Amino acid sequence: MVAAVLLGYFLLLFSILRFSTGWDTAWKRLGVTGYVLPFLDARIVLAGFESKRLGYDAQLYNPSDPVGRRFANPDFWLALTPLGLTQSHAIFVGIILALLFYISAFKIMGKLTLYEALVYSLILCSPSVMWIVERGNLDIVVYFLLTMSLVPITKSEKLVIRFSGMALSL
């Protein structure tokens, strides 16, 4: 049921997008504060990659960011610069982040009653949760890693596997 509600939500979003004036307008009709450029939070990392390749310290000056933001994320992200990703990959990266988020959410849910499915559907379609998805917020990666670390911790009786899950959560 939760997957069907999410599918319906995104079909509605893309239907609105088809007839609206832009990405931000479509999201706003669903109560989410969108921005003209999709996946703005993921885009700052991609812009940081571009600025670093141009020789700038993106944490001080990030001329590639379309809205002029400094790169205010951990240095770890800039270590991924050699991957060659640019802002042209923002849609791809945003979709991957959204998929990681929903994989994590469904992993946490497990089997649900009808009432629980309704509650999860309301939560996952709430404007605050959809805002994280719309922005391509990088906290999704942290959420995904923590969620996946819980699987061996909670599902295995073998001490070694449980410790590997605990180590992953660090």
Number of strand elements: 0
Shape: flat
What is the straight-line distance between the termini? 33 Å
Low-confidence runs = none
Radius of gyration: 18 Å
**Integer tally of domains:** 1
- As a percent range, the share of strand residues is under 5%
Would you tell me the overall average pLDDT?
Answer: 88
- Secondary-structure element pattern, one letter each: HHHHHHHHH
Structural class: mainly alpha
Helix tally?
9
Q: Please estimate the helix content.
A: 55-70%
Largest sheet: none
Could you walk me through the main structural features you see in this protein, from its secondary elements to its overall organization?
The chain has one domain (2-137). It is 65% helix and 0% strand. It has helices at 2-19, 23-29, 40-53, 75-78, 90-109, 114-124, 127-135, 139-155, 159-169. The chain is flat and about 50 Å long.
Write the layout of secondary structure elements.
Elements: H1 2-19, H2 23-29, H3 40-53, H4 75-78, H5 90-109, H6 114-124, H7 127-135, H8 139-155, H9 159-169
Helix pairs in contact: 1-2, 1-6, 5-8, 8-9
